[in-house]
Structure formats: C-alpha cells, structure tokens
Amino acid sequence: MASRAAAPPPSDRHAERDPVLPTASLLPQLPDDVSIQCIARVPRFFHARLAYVSRSWRCLLRSPALFAARLSCGAAFPFLCVDIRTTSARSSWFLLDREPRNPRPLLPLPPPLLPTAGSACATLGPLLFVIGGSLDGATPTTAVQVFDVRFRRWHLGPRMGSAREFAAAGAVGGRIYVVGGCLPSSEPWAEVLDPDSGRWAPMPSPLDVREKWMHGSVVLDGKLLAVADHGGLLFDPAVGTWGSVSTALDMGWKGRAAVVDGIIYSYDFLGNIKGFDPVMDEWREVEGVSEELPRFLSGAALAELGGHLCVLWEGKRAKRGKEMEIMCAAIKVSREAAAGAASSGKLRGKIVWTDAIALAFPKGSSVSHCLAVEV
Amino acid sequence: MSSGDSGPSSSKQLVQQPAAAGRSPNQPPLLGAGGRKVIVLKSGDEEEFEVDLLDAMQSRTLRRAIEDGCGDGPMPLPNLTGPVLAKVVELFRRHRGDPRWADELQETEKEGMFKDYAPQKPTAEVKGFDREFVSVDRDALFDLLRAANFLEAPGLLDVTCDAAADAVMNMTVEEVREYFGLVNDYTPEEEAALRKQHEWAFQ
After folding, report:
1. What is the pTM of this model?
2. Is the CB of B182 inside 8 Å of chain A's CB atoms?
3. What's the number of domains chain B is made of?
4. Claim to verify: residue A135 and residue A193 sit in the same structural domain
5. Out of A37, A50, A54, closest to residue B185 by CB
6. What is the CATH number of the domain that holds A144?
7. CA B183 to CA B167: how far, in whole Å?
C-alpha cells in the first residue's frame, strides 16, 4: 500500500548498499579514531550538512561508530519526538532537540507514510514506533510505522496480528509490547515485537483483563501499566502475568503520564502535576511549580527527558491567527527527606528550563504524542 | 609524603624549570617542591620537563610506562615537540582533580596516593584556561590532537576535540573541505540531489 513512499530515494542507494567506511581517511592530518572523536562532538543539527563534505564523512555520520562515540563523550543528548495533531486530524512530527549549541531546537520530520490517528507510540533506541491507529478516521490498521531518527526516514515495520487504535504500548527489555485498542474478543488482544526477528508474537491474556480503549500507558520497573476504561492494567513481561494496578494509583490516573526515576507523573482534575510513588503507594502533588506553570494543564503531554520531567502544552499567547504556540518546561523533581524518617515522600519540583515555540498550525491543534529518544 | 603544596606558585616552578639531565636509572624518583614525586619527560627535540608524577597519570600512555618502571630516568617522547609538550604538561597541572580522568582511578587509588586529588568540577578558571589553551591556529590544534591521541589523555582529548568540533560546526561544507584539505568525491549531480533532499540543513 505504501511501497511507493517507503522506497528510498535513488540518491541514497549508495549509502544503503555500502554501510562500511570507505578507505579514505576522515581527516588527512589525524588518525581516524581522533577524527571520529572530533566529529562526534558536533551537534546533531549540523550532521546533515556535514554529510556533504565527502563520502567518508557521510558514511561516518550514519554509522554505529559515531553514535557509540557520541554516547561515550557525553554528546548524545536525548530529545523529544513531538506529534502535533491539527483540527483536520493531520499528524505532524517534530524533533525538539535542546542539545547545547543547537541553533534550531525544533525540526520538522518528513510526514509519516500513513495518515493515522489514534496510534500508540513507543521508542526503542533511535527508533520511534507509531503503532496502528485509524486510517481516514475510521478504519483501524495493523500497520506499524517506524521513524529512524538517525537517518530521518520513515519505513513500514512488521504488521501486527490485530488492527488497533487507541492501544497502549511500551518498550520493555528491548521489545515493544502493545495491548488493547481492539475488541476484547480479538486474537491476539496483546502482542510483542522482537525487533531482531522483526516479528510480532501473540501474548496470551486472560479474557477478564481485556478492554477495548486505552487512555494512557507507562513503563514502570519493567512492567507495562495502562489506563483502560474500567481501571488500570498491569502486565509483567518477565513472568507473563496480568493484573490490575493498586487502587490508590487507579484513583489518581486518568490518562497521560510519564515515569521519571521510578515515580509516575500525571495531572489531577484540578490541573496540578502529581507524582505517584509505588513504594509508598500514594500520590503527592509536585510542589513549587504551580506558580510558574499555568493551571488546568490537563491536556498537556508528559515525557521523561534526560532525568527531567518534561511537560508540553498549547500556549495561549499565539499572536497571529495561523500560529499556535507550544510551551515546554523541564522540571527537576526531588524527593524531600524528612528529619528522622528516610523520606517524607514529598515531591518538590524546580523548573530547569522553559521554551515557547511558535508553529504554523491552526489554533486548536494539540500535542498528541511526546516521547524521548536517545541516540 | 607531605600534602597541600599544590598551590600555583610551586607547581608552576615544577613545569617551567628544565630538569637536570643525565640521571642514572638507579636513582630514586625525583622529588619536586614539597616532596612530591616527579618524573621527567623528554620531547623529540630534547627539551626536558619535570612533571608531578600524579599529574602525568592523566595520560594512560605515561601511566603504563610509569607502572612498567620507566619513570626513573627521562622518559623520551620522540613524537612530541618541546612547545607541544610544554602546553600538555601545563594542561595536566591545571586539570589536577578533573573528573574527566579522575573517574578512571580505582577506589584504592583514590584512598591512597591520589588522596589529595579529589575530583572536583572544572572551575571557571579551568574552563577559561581550556578556552585559551585551544586558541591556536589549525596546525597547532592538529599537533595537540595528535598528542592527545598518543598520550591517551581523556581531558586533553576532550578539550582539543571540542575545539575542532566548534571550528567545524560554523563552517560551510566548502570551508570544512578547505580547512581539512579534503577532496569532494561526490559527482556534481550527486551533490545537487543530496542538497535538494535536505534543503533544511543549508538554510
């Protein structure tokens, strides 16, 4: 169906065919080891341009060796993949990249191959998975679209066994798990993708845990947690067991959430950010941020970004009629220790940075997904 | 061994005084100001530099040589010139306690002979020194990069590679080729096609 769009442009075939580094040295004056160290420290924003220096530079910039070097020298900053949905239900992805020295923090991605809505998303290494969703706002699909942030290119991944929209998905132990988003009677209702074999395998699940729509999901401590219509689901892939989340968690969790440092963060109905500590089994308001953040952020998207809680919402200050403004804040949350006790469980937030990004989208557009990727 | 002598004045002396040549390998290690152990490094053009033994450990290459017992006489470094070695030795002194290399120390070493070398975040002064250190022309920067590679010194490599990356990132493709003497091996058609594909990168 999308084979035309999925075929790589002709100019890229050389690089596809020949992933090994050519014999020409990267910098004639230096050993290649050092050249790689130098090029690895150049912010990602400039990589696309540097690829035109020579064939050997192009190969290096696309090679695992460079990504390993960027990781080891601390130049690999995580960044966010952000999906903006316009009122016409069109999906547009952006990279929000706050790497130091990057002159342009927001980069548009090429459009996805399929115009899906209601997809579930997960990231695994440099890959963003956009799983299922409905086509034309009506027909759920089995398609999985994969974006490789290194090469800035979409391709179609392995198809699922069931068509899904509004499913829950998460990456655990190098595999992608997806549950629900289809009729409870569907087989498979839950399945798992092993990226090495490139196949989805059905996961057995008891009928009594199955529900149709999923309103949010997180991965916590190696388990996939999801908000279904009638309560929170918990799946432990290590042992293959299903259950429900604790009552306390269930009561305070209605949708979007993110996990940072073992705490689940979400919004309460008053628009305050709360954190759920699974050890204490209770929600606590994140104190110290309410003055700097607008209230009623219930439509905001949350993500973990480099150890910080990242919050994205639609700004109110759009100047011209055609522009929307995305606001973004990174919050460092610390758990306060009480005198005598090991921890009072109090969560105190400090805003590390905020950004306002103007986008040429009609007002009323919204952030539908927001995930961190690390390369 | 006494401690607390790492003030700038005494250390500066260590670096700038050329060492006395002609020591026999059987003599005990040199003692610098305050009783610290020092070793002597000899450049390819026969310049000698006294370096605090512990500062020299920032280089994996020197560290291996010292641990193999080569630190008693002047240690020849034939592929480093005097001016390059002088700069490197000064950087080692300024990077004392730099976590970039102190992280590599084993726990027992942190307790033992590196006791006074508690890792500390680079101060504004060290950062200023680093900036000044790489404010050199292209060929001098390549010399320092090659020295960092040969000496396997993480702190030195970090500073010099950052400088090279800074130089590259503000250049056009043509300037990068000119700077490094690289040949454009794309055909004009290929290059035009590539540029078209990634127009955003050239804006």
Report:
1. 0.68
2. yes
3. 1
4. yes
5. A54
6. 2.120.10.80
7. 18
Q: Which of these three, A215, A245, A275, is where a domain ends? A: A245
Average of per-residue pLDDT values in chain A: 84
What average pLDDT score do residues B87-112 get? 73
pLDDT in tens, A215-241: 999 999 999 999 998 889 999 999 999
Which residues fall within 8 angstroms of residue B167, CB to CB, at 6 or more apart? B138, B141, B179
Whole-angstrom Cα Rg for chain A: 22
Strand partners, A234: A225, A243
In a domain, A143, yes or no: yes
Residue A28 has pLDDT above 50, yes or no: yes
The CATH number of residue B83's host domain is: 3.30.710
Q: Do A61 and A119 share a domain, yes or no?
A: no
Looking at the partner chain, which of B145, B168, B186 has a beta carbon nearest the beta carbon of A42?
Answer: B168
Residues from chain A contacting residue B173 (CB–CB below 8 Å): 49-50, 52-53
Classify the complex by whether its ipTM is higher than 0.85, answering yes or no: no
Residue of A25, A54, A150 for testing the chain B interface, max B β-carbons within 10 Å: A54
d(CA A314, CA A325) in angstroms, rounded, equals: 6
- Is residue B155 domain-resident? no
Contact B106, B100 (CB under 8 A): no
HSE (side-chain half, CA atoms, 13 Å) at A238: 6
Chain A hits for B143, CB-CB cut-off 8 Å, are: none
Contacts with B176 from chain A: Cβ below 8 Å:
50, 53
Tell me the residue range of the domain where A324 lies.
77-107+254-368
Last residue of a domain, one of A190, A215, A245: A245
Rounded distance, CA B143 to CA B162, Å? 15
Tell me: do A151 and A93 sit in the same domain.
no
